[in-house]
Amino acid sequence: MITNDEILEIIDAAASRELIDRHRRQLQTDADYRRRFQFFESLESALYELPLESPSLRFTENILEKLKPAIQKTRPFPRWFPFIVGALCCVALTTALFSPASAVSADATPRVFQYVLTQGARLWQIYLSALSGRWSIYLLGLTASAALLLAFDQKLLQPYFRQRGLSIG
User: Fold this and answer.
1) How far apart are alpha carbons 15 and 2 in whole angstroms?
2) What is the 8-class DSSP label of residue 13?
3) What is the residue-wise DSSP string for 22-87?
4) In this structure, how many other beta carbons lie within 10 angstroms of the beta carbon of residue 124?
5) Counting Cβ atoms within 10 Å, is residue 30 exposed (0-12), middle (13-18) or buried (19+)?
6) Could you give the CA distance from residue 101 to residue 110 in angstroms, rounded to a whole number?
7) Which end of the chain is less crowded, N or C, counting CB atoms within 10 A of the terminal residue's CB?
8) Cβ contacts of residue 10 below 8 Å, gap of 6+?
9) DSSP symbol at 107
């Protein structure tokens, strides 16, 4: 008995001489085998009649463009969320450092907490004295210049070059 895999080998012209001889004998004697073989031949011809699909050269880009709206809709947090969290952390830290010093007497405050309060006060003094110096103004000007250059690049230069299809590199 010839199996389905062997029938496919015969149709694909990859069968051995012995298998082809068995196939010819069975075609002449067995009507059930003949029907099975004709079924597989019709499947093979139907496969050849199907149009051959070839993906576009921009297949990946097209899929990503179609998925982009779905991805943008599933954003878990707004863009300003990290700034709010940062501001809340700063408020909580400031409250934790300075609020207990005025609300609780020095005798009731544990030594570790007093140490944290004194170190926090020293850091604020250092920070405020650094801001009043000449170099802090230079640093502030340098930071503002960098921010302006970044905004100029993002809002003007990148759209200009992207619209014309130009890139560096």
Assistant:
1) 12
2) T
3) HHHHHHHH-HHHHHHHHHHHHHHHHHHHSPPP---TTHHHHHHHHHHHHHHHT-SS-TTHHHHHHH
4) 13
5) middle
6) 11
7) C
8) 2, 19, 20, 23, 37
9) T
Residue 130 has which token pair?
């650094």
Q: Which two tokens stand for residue 141?
A: 């000007």
CA 156, CA 160: separation in Å to the nearest integer? Answer: 6
pLDDT tens digits along 11-38: 988 899 999 999 999 999 999 999 999 9
CA angle, 127 then 128 then 130, to 5°? 65
> Are residues 11 and 40 in contact, defined by beta-carbon separation less than 8 angstroms?
yes
pLDDT score for 103: 47
